[in-house]
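Run log // design_07
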């Protein structure tokens, strides 16, 4: 913890720049994670999407179709 206190300003700057996480340990055991607000919001949005019934199955089916070349290309859509 004392290392964390001394390095906190530089750790916050480094983590805020991208999708990085720091696991803080106490006596060698993981206790907390420090991550950027952007990453937290991204994880929460993913959880929200995946909490919809059937969402994961739809995502997997769409991924299979895309690998098989099925579907409509973006440039072929008429908006």
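design_07 sequence
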């Amino acid at each position: 913890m004392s290392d964390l206190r001394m390095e906190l300003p530089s750790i916050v700057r480094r983590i805020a720049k991208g999708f990085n996480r720091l696991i803080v340990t106490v006596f060698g055991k993981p206790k907390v994670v420090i991550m950027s607000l952007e990453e937290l919001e991204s994880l929460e949005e993913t959880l929200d999407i995946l909490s919809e019934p059937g969402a994961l199955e739809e995502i997997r089916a769409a991924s299979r179709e895309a690998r098989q070349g099925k579907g409509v290309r973006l440039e072929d859509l008429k908006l």
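The helical segments are 2-16, 37-50, 55-67.
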